[in-house]
Specification:
homohexamer, about 270 residues, alpha/beta, 5-stranded parallel β-sheet, 6 strands
Chain lengths: ~270, ~270, ~270, ~270, ~270, ~270
């Protein structure tokens, strides 16, 4: 099977892989508060479930999965117990050292598979810097950015369901039901916090909490007292299973494109 | 007039400003190649023109404009003469030192007004880190992200007009006509380079050069030999004037929101 | 059960733990060549097997296991494909950021459970620096230092069995038989490399490759061409099982002491 | 005209310049308190006025002026509102990144034109380090060091007129009269602060505030409550105009020498 | 005489030395509290005395002694007046810069002669990193590790005599009697502090204060109020002289081995 | 006697010193080529001789001398064997760590006694930064700046006698005659190198090699092939003794002023 774990191979195995085509994938999770009902490893657990599913469905794309980074940059949550965060520069060095080790072994294609939105800005910068310093072809796949779109059309859910809310709770119910606390009912985040966020942005046209053009950088405590930004009360395992399948499908499709991509391909 | 230049005020003037409401705005340009026909200071020149227009239209919002950062992070263009770039960490320290100086003076609201897309990822991270380390309310206004939308509906322009193309050349023709070289005709970038980029991404669904969900970090040389990514040949001064006016209008609107924004506003 | 995984608990769970007594354990593995027959994740895999065994036998000591660091400092192996290494300063920052996050959550006792000898010097320094900067009680448990003692009495094994040799291959045969390559016979490392190392140190009284008083810092290539320092040919699964059980027993005993330790205990 | 602005040229223009002879000049100003009567941008404004004058008088020396650094190292003034300062290492990186970009473009001669005395020590070090790391011919022109000499012979002015005093106020009155506050009369700095400084150094032979051989590093607050070190009360626009003309003459003369200088010139 | 001081030679002398065989030795002392009776320079003074003795006895080994590093890493003692300590990274840079200068001059063999136990972990790491970055043959001679062994068999001395106790006080009495305070009697450290340390580790099997396998990182204040860890009351000059002679003999023997060592020596 | 060596005192001694008045002096030498005839430790040896003389003549000023820094920043000489240099940032950290340790012990007055001109710029910056970060009263005594003045009036000596020339060779002949090589005659540096430097600066009015207002940063190889900048051929021991006595006198005078200095002294 072409999907394999870097960790389980010997140095000799890795030396004999086709370096030009093989994708090396670095899954990036986090350890950060996810409300009172989800484990702090939620991002790590979701990305690992997606990697597992991808491994089984990817087909003939040569792909090596590195182990998951279980700490990344979560300082917006650092006021909540259980959050473990790297400083900005620590995460940069961690990713650079790993990428340089991958390049030193002769590989040419490295994919970030990132499940934590708080890392996106830095990975964007690191991708460009590593493209320049190592010559690697980098690919930046932001898994979390696929979380919301279809979810929001399920009835009249809140606009902002970005952390420990409907989507993540549903997927966790589907993939790790034993790790979801009982108390994910309507009392969490939902009404009260949604209202607060709504009040902050009420009447604003340009400023939005997750806007790309005109945004307001935030810490979790700016929005919520219980760490939930969304509505976990409506989460359901069935919806989570559907979303999980969709995510695996997207990751497989993107990885196939990553394996085929070339800059300035020669005309055929 | 409530719009003033930080540079022109004395320490005593600055000490007596209303710190709670006054916006401090840091305009961020760049010094980087903009094809053979536009000056390397194009981003700096555009943001300074926008600041000038904003100063005249902003009305009664108290606002202090810092001088413009004329170097930022442009390493994707470093293979072209005239590009001056900060390393990642240099830009971080520059912005942090300025923000800490602003906070030390007692101000509470700092706005990044960024004209160079290559800075966006880092400013996203810096905004969050500075929100935490200084307690400032940060606002991140990415001016360049407003460049393309309306432009692309002008006839059948290329999808990718992101650098030294139709938009930037038009605005420069409107605001600094003497600095635009004669040779911005159809021979530049347009057909040839557009074709090359199209070839790279031909048939791909997820991977895009400017995608947020699944992107391929690039250096300018990956795409183009003359540094142009877009079609300057169609640029016109009248279009540039319209776009310029639109940009000033957007900046004024966003700054008004920045002055009014509060986290968790108390109910009235 | 008092042994739990940090990753699987919610922020609320972690906030309610007894911070004064509970041990937080950071398992430290590596990703580095282990000869042509063992996976590059050998150190990580062994420490995770030991954590799993410890979890079941530790009894009533309150203990939280962080996920395993799967990259640490392996630059002595960087000439071999598959090795992923942090620079010195990267590992320092990684461990410091994690320790500071643990201290910020209110915990008081942090244990390094380190399976890679190449980290020992730095962890010694970090322990002291973190004791000073965070006030945490640190404990430094160097798992690898228990590998050799009993092994060496098994017949006339070589003095130097420190990497990918008899001990590690035996434990991997016991715990992960499917990941051990067929080719761990007498042709590896053993005779040829043992001879080379012996030749280097022949007739020396003080200088030794692993000496603490007078040592010669080495890179793997100084000693061996196939990355093996030891004699994997004699490895047996039964011996590996015995050693594994012994390691688990030691770790349980040490953790009990860590939970009970106090500086300057008051007389009872 | 051979004097041009780097910012206004295209990458193509810059690529075609004669790299061996052309001077690249980096003007260095500051943003720091200058008493209650001068703008915080005084150093920046003065150096920009001098650059403007130089551009018109330099003649046939090929010279490219970079935009002005408007923040440099002003931590001695950081207790006063409006001061924006880089930390030591930030300024080093800023200047190094700019110099490396200039060298990468193929230029060979870089001139620091520094208007803020607080940068002198660091520029001295950076010049030597960049000479070594980039191979550039560096020139360090400390504009401020020409401020005092002739001034002090105007009547019986104070020995120490180094900041926001007679000289700087006069030049600002000549070049930017609208930015000088009304209140630069005898009540500022002059008597009271001069007396204090005199008292500190009364009876000392070697220790002086600006001594090179035996100096006492100071923060502004060690000397003065209003940020003035000198006597702005005697400032006059006519004197400022004379001094400005003198400065422009000096800068032109130095730049001509910089363009002609070679190490170990071959005998003619 | 083949033993010489680097400091006393000219650049020309150093350029003409046999680089392949000559040992360059960096003696490493410290400046840190050594109880109320020994000078803060004790480690430096001892290593300098040992260097002096070695110089006279080493015979025909070509050896160049650098001056002694008189500050190293002593942060465990920083709560006591007189301790001067480098931060972790400062010591790394100091040793790296010196080693790179030695390598740049063409030398091939560098020996750390370290008298302060607190540096051992970092020197272990630095030796490996410098072996890789400079290609030098490094040798790490930890002088302090030879202090205790024979001493402890002298009667029933305490197990822990690691700082300012019997051994160091004896050697100082032998080599620098005028610098040893009168008050090194039984009232210091000995009974009281020994008892405290004993109480901390009473009943523990694995955890020890200086253990390599399972240790507890400490600050001096964790153990002792007067900075003594040992029993200076029993110190005698005669014992110090014996120990000093033993140390010189060991250093001479190790240096002879360092001069002869080669990796993978060719068969003779 | 009030002049004492920090190294020789115990922690208890240092804790009981009058912290308000006592001067702590850090002598700063270097290890750098000094031509083919002077030892690389020349700067260190001279400053130590001056410290020794000062100790005997200083009288009742309370003064503690730290050991001498024997490496500082000498990268301009790094192309010559025997030069050992710290990078810019290493020297900053070394001086900062020492100053912070001195401040932590409660002292209030720290004097840099610097014998190597290449450190002057950095010490100027460090003095100001440490004044701010530690609150210490810093004094920066640049010993080398007193070398040339009187020397140059001795007949018609060269204008540039700054390194390994008449002055330093004379002082070394007076203080360390056995360390001065025979070959310091007229063939060194003098005619040939003086001529080369003269040629470089011939006809220049502002640019000078050691100018403060308009200088050209240099590496030793820019000027000289044998490392001498000056005329050692005329050096005499008697002149060296006179200069040495003058230097000791100056240092004593400056230290007396340092002990008496206060900012804003209250009127008596």
């Amino acid at each position: 099977m072409p999907c394999r774990r870097w960790r389980d191979l010997s140095s000799l195995d890795l030396a004999s892989v086709d370096k030009d085509r093989t994708l090396v994938v670095l899954p990036i999770g986090s350890t950060e508060q996810h409300g009172p009902h989800l484990p702090v490893g939620t991002d790590t657990l979701i990305v690992e479930a997606v990697v597992e599913g991808t491994t089984q469905q990817l087909g003939d794309v040569e792909c090596l999965f590195l182990p998951t980074l279980w700490v990344s940059k979560s300082n917006e949550h650092s006021a909540f117990a259980g959050t473990i965060t790297f400083a900005r520069d620590t995460l940069c060095r961690v990713v650079e050292d790993i990428a340089e080790s991958v390049a030193r072994a002769g590989f040419r294609r490295l994919v970030f598979l990132n499940a934590h939105g708080g890392n996106a800005g830095l990975l964007d910068v690191l991708g460009r810097d590593l493209r320049q310093s190592t010559g690697l072809l980098l690919f930046d796949l932001e898994l979390w950015s696929f979380y919301t779109a279809q979810t929001l059309s399920e009835g009249a859910l809140p606009v902002l369901d970005i952390h420990a809310g409907y989507f993540e709770t549903s997927v966790m119910l589907a993939c790790y039901p034993s790790l979801v606390g009982e108390r994910f009912g309507g009392g969490l985040g939902s009404d009260r916090e949604r209202g607060k966020i709504a009040a902050s942005f009420d009447g604003f046209c340009y400023l939005t909490p997750d806007g790309k053009s005109a945004s307001v950088p935030w810490l979790t405590g700016d929005y919520t007292d219980d760490g939930v930004m969304g509505d976990p009360g409506q989460a359901r395992a069935e919806a989570g299973r559907r979303e999980y399948d969709r995510l695996v499908g997207i990751v497989c499709a993107v990885l196939r494109e990553c394996a085929a991509f070339e800059y300035r391909p020669s005309a055929s």
